[in-house]
């Protein structure tokens, strides 16, 4: 699911998205971003449906997703994305978290992780208010 919550674009249910085509996901994502009236926004990515580390790593290193992830990030930054807050299930090892940050981090919209939706909302609001 992709929804706006204030100035945050929240992407959830990645297991469901994994069953659709990448182009369908990108079209839905583009449509949501194009209909947003604000200049700056934060993307919240909810990976909590990936409890098993091996499943999360499989998603992160899937060859067919590497370029689309890069394209989406570059396209999003041009349209005002300033940060990516990634929600992870508790218990994900630190080395996996570091890999995830390296994959999602970019100069226009740095990535960071939290372990709850509440923490993601708090970070998004802090970033949008300039309290980086």
End-to-end separation in angstroms reads 27 Å
Q: Using the alpha-carbon principal axes, give the shape.
A: globular
> How are the strands of the biggest sheet laid out side by side?
1-2-3-4-5
Biggest sheet descriptor: 5 strands, mixed
Q: How many strands appear in the DSSP assignment?
A: 5
Rg, Cα atoms, Å: 14 Å
Helix share of residues? Answer: 40-55%
Helical stretch tally: 6
Which structural class is indicated by helix and strand composition? Answer: alpha/beta
Sequence of secondary-structure elements: EEHHEHHEHEH
Work out the strand percent: 15-25%
Please mark out the parts with pLDDT under 50 across 5 or more consecutive residues, or reply none.
none
Mean pLDDT: 87
